[in-house]
Amino acid sequence: MESTYDLLEVLKHIDPSELNYQDWVNVGMALQHEGYAVDVWDQWSRNDHRYHAGECEQKWQGFHGAGTPVTGGTIVQYAREQGWTPSYNPGEAMDWDSSVSIIDKNWVEEKEVEAPKNWNPAEELITYLETLFDSTENVGYVTTSFEKDGRYMPTKGSWDRTAGQLIEQLTHCKGDIGSVFGDYNPLVGAWIRFNPLDGNGCKNDNVTDFKYALVESDSLEIEKQNALIRELDLPVACLVHSGGKSLHAIVRIDAADYGEYRKRVDYLYEVCKKNGLELDQQNRNPSRLSRMPGVMRNGQKQFLVDTNIGKDSWTEWKEWIESVNDDLPDPESLEDVWDNLPDLAPCLIDGLLRQGHKMLIAGPSKAGKSFLQIEMCIAIAEGKKWLNWDCSKGRVMYVNLELDRASCLHRFKDVYNALGWEPKNLNNIDIWNLRGKSRPMDKLAPMLIRRAAKKNYIAIIIDPIYKVITGDENSADQMANFCNQFDKVCTELGVAVIYCHHHSKGSQGGKKSMDRASGSGVFARDPDALIDLIELETTEELMKQQENKAVCDACKQYLDAHFKWEDDLSLDDLCSSYQMVNYCENKLDKWQFAALKRNIEAAKVRVKGMTAWRIEGTLREFPKFEPQNLWFNYPIHVVDQSGVLGDIQPEAELAPWQRGSAKNKKNAKNRKTDRKAALEEAIEGSNFGENPSVNEVAEYLGVSERTVRDRVKEHGGYTIEGGLIQKSKEKQSAGKSE
User: Fold this and answer.
1) What is the distance of C-alpha 620 from the center of its chain?
2) What letter would DSSP give residue 426?
3) Confidence of residue 516 (pLDDT cuts 50, 70, 90)
4) Into how many domains does the chain fold?
5) Shortest CA distance to 683 belongs to which of 715, 640, 649?
6) Whether residue 159 sits in one domain with residue 28
7) Widest pairwise Cα distance in the chain
8) What distance in Å separates the CA atoms of residue 301 and residue 281, rounded to the nearest whole number?
9) What is the pLDDT of residues 259-296, one digit of tens each?
């Protein structure tokens, strides 16, 4: 597990002098695993009176290639044990690095351990062997010892007999276990290995099955050890009194190989440690010796306390530990809350989204999704409408993953200006620019939570999510895990999380709104509100209407700024670009009219860049809303108040015969446009710019005179008088205005 904390900061809260040697080494291994330099470990270690110059460097080199890595979670745990409390909960997944205490050793009642009165050493050993070994498995044991520095140490011992052979011999030894295992020193006692061996040695490499691990603690009273082992429900196969200060619990591990054994023992030791059972860290090896029941040690019995206590297996125990450790709420009775229901979260966007919930905006490229989110961001900050929906006023964070910082900041100002809103609440908008610095969402979420914890945001907008997706976009389980990161942000901060995603390839009009987003259906089904955009195909006639409106608006805006003029024109004139331009030409001087013409040209350019869109939605908390039609007039989206977009159907929603008819109409329209253009070219190119005759145009086009007359009539911008073709009065007036 990669640490989600700043380990340099966490390390400041750990006093190395309070750690034992193994814990100190673990800190170094964790720092190396997380990518830190040896200097960090060395500098921190100088705070301990046991520090020796050069020792960190020497140890560091030996860490390379270690089997199971020690991660940053170990450092975090050491800091917690010394009293450090993180300022936020990073929402880590449950593993041994993040498990929590389930018992308090200070409140566990001691459980007495009584030595057997009618003690039968041979029977205890038989029970021990039958419990731990199959009859064909070789057993390692030690009955001889040697003295070193005032202490008695075990020799390597023996491993040449199977459990079945030893049990057979114990059955007939008449209580003389020395005749089976060899005589031992009653001052020292004897030892036995709890995992089977291959008969060729007693090292880890000789272990044939990684069944058990040793749990031993000599820092607590025997009675407290006994109580804690049982309270933790450890899957103990055999519990042996060592004849000294500790109990030896032989715990079922049932690992497939040495790598899995190490991971499970690490987990076991950490759970014990966090629950007050401090263990001897040197007992992790699968070939480790434990105390043999049925012998004496300095006047005390090494005896079998119990067998098969706690959970039945490692799997059952681990599931129990994790179920106790989870942070899930308990089920509640509906009857208990029926008359006292909790308040619903307040609305963030009226009729769409509540605070603390999630919203996805999906659409194709060029839909202006980022601009739509910036508009929403500004609407929340200012407490205004977003499209047709009222927004609560509050503080919002915009997480920019795609644009460089300058472009992003300019976009916000451009959108403010295009909306025509006074920026009264810029302090309500925070922008986190992460282009080139983003992380996968499972790593970004805790960083985001930490930065936002004390800012009182009501919404966080993440744009776009493809930059932070973890896993396969089409995998339901991987995307469910990805979407869970948004839940963590919502839950930890109490904010709404809003993000956008792209459509899958192909035509989208015939699909439901929740089926258009790319990848797994989890994307569309996970959020509380799905807002989906689909493009509407506009006609030439419709765009001419928009151009006419834009020209009229440009004229009105200019006139409003300079004159009192409304009474001069009829309502029909106000809707005609021809009449408006003609009026302005007569009303304004040539300099004013030139300025207006520049405004008109700019308006026409904007219209050419406009695209039409329809918003549909799928809501969890609110009734379904009617589709909303809007124009994307860069850089903002404008709701279609006129209703001209209401009758447009996306292509895929048309019946097959309608699609064919629409295609024919489109082709016919294109042919008509081409004929108009050809006629205009012929009229301009015939007779050296003077009004040409019908015959001259017919020869130019290579058609009959009747066809020319039909096309002139169809065009509408020309008339035929005395056999000559000339511009109509309307076309002449339009030419002057241009």
Assistant:
1) 21
2) G
3) very low
4) 5
5) 715
6) no
7) 142
8) 25
9) 899 989 989 998 998 888 888 878 889 999 999 999 99
